[in-house]
Design a protein that fits this description.
Length: 178
Amino acid sequence: MSLISSRVRVSVYSGGFIAEPSLFEASQCPNYNLAFFNIVAQPVYNEKIRQAASFNFKNQLKSQWGPDSSSKDEPTISEVENEKIKASIVSLMLSATHKIWSQLTEIVVLICKHDWPDGWPNLLPDLISRLQKANADNDILGIANSIFKSFGYECNHLKYFWSILPHPFRTFSLKPRV
């Protein structure tokens, strides 16, 4: 991870041109995405480095996540990376700054397009449990809004919309706080 973080540091401070070839080379290694995820998650790194890492992380996942993302040049994301990212991304979003949060929101929407609800069934229960016991209500609702909004824009047929609507809203129904 220190090799990747040093390459990100060089990329941030050089305008990106020097480190891009070496970052592309490193992207062929296993757990590359998790290395970027860890850089974003570690507050010991400078905010600019974390922001650049979140941007690269988002762009990498766009090219690797889902069945239609495979190409000969780009490796697809491993199942282990897939599950680790899904298990930790909501927690990371709740502790992220706004600029990083924006990148992570795009990642969650991307993952949802490919995996949710069947491949990520615990997403909404996780959001609901955090909403019921956290002070981060706006952040949780922002995540939920991003998920639902992305599905709303893609629904061209009312029949399709109603076929996906009941599950999320049944799951997201909240009990009033007492």
